[in-house]
Structure formats: C-alpha cells, structure tokens
Amino acid sequence: MNQFVQQAANGLLLGSIYSLIALGLSMIFGMMNIVNVAHGDFYMLGALVAYYTVASFHLPYAVAVVASVAVVGALGAAIERGILRRVRESAMVTTMLITLGLSLLLQNFSLMATGGVPHFIRSPFSPEPLVLGLVHVAPARLFAAVFSILFIIAVHLFLTRTKWGNAMRACFQDKTAASLAAGIDIEKVYALTFALGVGMAALAGTLLGTIFFVDPMMGAKGMTKSFVVVIVGGMGSFVGAIFSGLLLGVTETLAAAYLSSGYKDVVGFILVVLVLTFRPAGLFGKRIR
Amino acid sequence: MLKNRRILLLGLLVAMVVLPLFFPLYQVHVLVLSLINIMFALSVDLVLGRVGQPNFGQAAFLGIGAYASALFSLRLHWPVPLSFLGAIVVSMVAGFLIGKIALRMRFFYFCIVTISVAQVFMLTSTNAVGLTGGPMGLTNIPRPTGVSSLKAWWLLGFVLTAAMLLLVRRLDNSKVGRAWVSMRESEKLALAVGVNTVGYALLAYVIGAGFAGIAGSFYAHYVAFIDPSMFDFSWSSMAVVATVIGGKGTVWGPLIGGAMITIIPEFLRVASAWRLPIFGLLLIVIVVFMPNGLISLPRVWHNWRSGIKEQV
C-alpha cells in the first residue's frame, strides 16, 4: 500500500509537468490551428538553454529558468513572424510540414552544440528526500510540480483577467469577429500565443532537466507525451490538459512499477486509442473536431 | 516530337540501369540505398500526396516489412522470395487494420495515431527479446540466392522501384487517381459528388503500407541486419522531407527527393553533421516558396521569366 501511494505521488508530480507542456501545444492548436510538431524540441531547447546558463555562465538556477523561457519565447515569436505568418491561410498539412522542418533544425543544431552528450541541470535542491506523511519526495521534483501548477494557474489568470488574455480568448472563439468588432490586433495575438505556447514547453524543460537527463533527442518524447495529453484531455480544454497530464503521469508510473518498465511508454498510446474510440472529443472536450 | 521524347526516355532508362554497373562499389551501394529511400518515399506519398493527411508514422510499415521478412527467413527458413511476398502481405494487412482506425481521424489525430503506432511497434520490438532479438536486433538475415553482388542488388532494386513507379502512375491516371485528387482538394466536395472517400483513402493507405513493406524487406535482406530503430520517427520524417522536396502527390517527386536525400549527403561528407539541419531548412524553404516541390521548378522558372505571378 505504501509503495502504491509513493508511486501514485511520483506520478502526480511528473504528470503536472506533462500538463504544462501539453497546455502550450493545446493553446497553439486552439488559437492558431497549427499542429506544432516541433513542440517537443522547444521543450528540449528550454532545458538546454537552462543547462548552459547554469553550467557555462555560472548563474543561479532561478535566472536560468527565466532566461530559458525568455529566449525560447522570443525565438517562438520570431519564428511566428518570420515563417508561420507566411503560411497562415494554408492547409494544416503545410504548417505541420514546416514545424517538422523546424524540429529537424532545432534537434540537429542542438546535437551539434552539445555533441550529443547528456547533461544534468545542477539545481539548488538537496538530493535528500522530504518525508510528507506516507511518501518520500525529492525536493527538486516537488519544486518542479508545484512550480508548474503555479504557472498553469498564472496562465489561466492571464487568459481570464488581462486585456491580452481576453484578446487571445476572443481570437480563439472567432478570429474575424475579434479583429473586426473588437479591434484586436490579431498579428500580435498570434505571435504572443506562439511565444507563450513554446515558452511553456521550455519551462517544462527547465523543470524536468533537473530530474532527468537533458539531451537533444528528448524532444521526441516530449512531443509524443504532449500529443497524448492533449488528445486524452480534449483539444483546447484547459481542465482537460491538467487532468489528463496527471492521469498520464500516474498511469505511467504505476505501469512501470507493477507491470514492466519497458512498456511504460505504451500506456499513453493505449489511453489515446481508448479515448479516441469511446470519447473522440477527449475527456473534457466539448466540440467534435 | 513525342517519338523523340520516348526514345530519349528509353535511352535515359537504359543508361540509368547500365551505367552504375561500371561505378566503383561504394557508389553502387549509395545508389541501392537511394532506391530504398525512393520506394519508401513513394509509400509515404501515397497518403501524404494523395489523401492529403500528414503521414508521419510510415516507419511502422517499413519496420513491419523488415521484421516480417527477416523472421520468415530466419525462424521459418522460408526462401527469401517467399519471405519477401509474405512481408508484403503482412504489411498490407497491418496497413488495412491500422488504416481502418487511423483514417477515421484527420490531421492532428491522424498524425498522433500513426506516430503512436510506430512507437508501439518500436517498443514491442525492443522488449519482445525472444522473438525479435530486442535491442540487439536480428543479424545474418539471408540474401536471396543469385543476388550476391552489389550490382545484382542494384538491378533488382531498380526493377522493383520501376514497377512501383509504374503502378503509381497507372493508379494516378485511373479512376482511383481522380478520386484521390478530388479528396485531396476538397474532401467535403468529393463526398458530396459521391466519391467513396473512406474506401479510396484506405486503398492508398494499404498500397502505401505494402510499398513500405517492400522497402523494409529489401533493406533487411540487403543490409542483413535490422534493429528496433527501423521504426524510428527519423525514418518517417526523412521520407516526408524527400517527398515534399521532390514534389508531393506526383510520381517523379519521391524519385527526385528520395535520390536527393541519399546522394547529396555523400557529396557533403565533410559536413555530415549539417546533413539533417540542411534538409530541415530545405523543407521549410520549399514548403513556403515552392509548395509543389522541385518538380515544379521548370514551371516556376518559366513563370518567373515571363513575369507571371502564380497564386499558390
């Protein structure tokens, strides 16, 4: 029983970070109608930037987190303005191909930069686990989970309480009406959405980078996980992404503990197939595609 | 004019078959690899270019073909041609079953389901050590009798690729091809005028799976070694790059693209690390500025010369 609670807690901690990556993907899709195949690579890039900030510039971890989100967010905005803007009215396959190209670029530039050696982001947290009732938790993991939950709440507040957040939600619902009736500058909203979306992936990278290895190929895993979370939770659903992120984290960790660690990554795909068969719009999705 | 063109084409064809027979061995090896990439790109294009769905998980069928063929030969001791045919059947059956599920989805969903399927096969082939040899892969996959030299492989691959190209051309020019075009341009309209979109999409998917199976089986027997990386996303993405660079939805596009992505890196040997970033960049540039691929270069050039602005 103790072990079960321990594993479930580990799963919840991991899952909250899955939710964070996936929310970025979900926002980009919901708002811009772009399936960001390179999402996992922005997550990887976030971890790498944080690693170099700490390792090469000897700056504290907190600075690294901020720097990484800022750098990746700015890169996202630049990519949106420079490339994605040109293909705004194209078919969805076109933008998917472009993000696939971005993914190849980011992955291989990082491979060249790092030489493919896996790294750890040195974090200020002690490796000594905290004891919280029944469970033992590594401080780095606890911090990562709490921070991503706080950030998700912050994004939620941003979307519901601020002018720009309202503008983004208005565009999400109806772009034409938003620009014509409400006078929203759609171009800026697009750039902001993409920057925020990939920035969230980068943040997740900086948080997971203190727990797992950072390497240029980690993007593929980040991509598949966030795709799974978004589909299970329902496209564009905030609550759905959070719930299904946690669900994926817990089921994966339990599967690794009780079934076989080799097959733990299959769990997500089984969830996807089940959801698409029985509830194609996702657990919390309202619209059918 | 037409007659001259035919003779020219025929001469070109003969030259393409015969010339490599005088090449140094390594160059022939590169050409054989490019044939595999062409076959695989053709298979990707059947869904990407005909149905118009993001086919980013085609490595599933490449791997299924490779593993099926290798296992038939190694475990059941079938002769290689029989294993080859068996592999095609297995990948087409797999294509039918997976296509039945995947083709109910569009874009995002189609993409994740097909990538997932490839991932599941990769994990299974890594973990089912007893059957597949796990991460160590399968070694000593037999070669077909009579096909021992590199040049024999070149000829065999050439014949296979040519047959596949002809089949695609045949299909494109038939009722099936017209149905595909209508679906790609507007699925709703195609449905409205009574095109059986589900059936034709599934047909493209199953033929594509069969083609990938051929490429996989050919690869397995040629290289004589396979491992779970056959199912890797990088295989799928390179084939997509090849297809789009060459020109998706065409017969010659995958041919040009498949040959390019294999042969150009050989010239760029010194810059081997730059290979993939270059293709990533090329993919973006082509998609943005020349969405119909390099195959449309003559037309783009002509339009540019005569000052015609073409609407994409």
Q: What can you tell me about this protein's structure?
A:
The complex is a heterodimer of chains A (289) and B (312). Chain A contains eleven helices and two strands; from the N terminus they run ααααββααααααα. With 289 residues, chain A is an all-alpha fold. In chain A, α1 (2-32) runs antiparallel to α10, α2 crosses α3 and α9 (218-233) crosses α10. The radius of gyration of chain A is 19 Å and the shape is globular. Chain B is mostly helical. Helices cover 74% and strands 0% of the residues of chain B. The A-B interface holds A 29, 35, 37, 83, 86-87, 90-94, 96-98, 100-105, 107-109, 111-112, 220, 224, 227-228, 231, 235, 260, 262-263, 265-266, 268-269, 272-273, 276, 289 and B 48, 52-54, 56, 101, 105-109, 111-113, 115-117, 119-120, 123-124, 126-127, 233, 237, 240-241, 244, 273, 276-277, 279-284, 287-288, 291.
Beta-strand residue percentage of chain B: under 5%
Please tell me the CATH architecture of chain A by its name: Orthogonal Bundle
Radius of gyration of chain B over alpha carbons?
20 Å
* Annotation field: number of helices of chain A: 11
Low-confidence residue ranges of chain A:
none
| Number of structural domains of chain A | 1
What is the molecular shape of chain A?
globular
Order of helices and strands of chain B: HHHHHHHHHHHHHH
Residue stretches of chain B low in confidence (pLDDT < 50, at least 5 long) are none
> What does the overall shape of chain B look like?
globular
Give the quaternary arrangement of the chains: heterodimer
First-to-last CA distance of chain B: 31 Å
What is the chain-wise order of helices and strands of chain A?
HHHHEEHHHHHHH
Number of domains of chain B: 1
> Radius of gyration of chain A over alpha carbons?
19 Å
Profile the largest sheet of chain B: none
The largest sheet of chain A has its strands arranged as 1-2
Structural class of chain A: mainly alpha
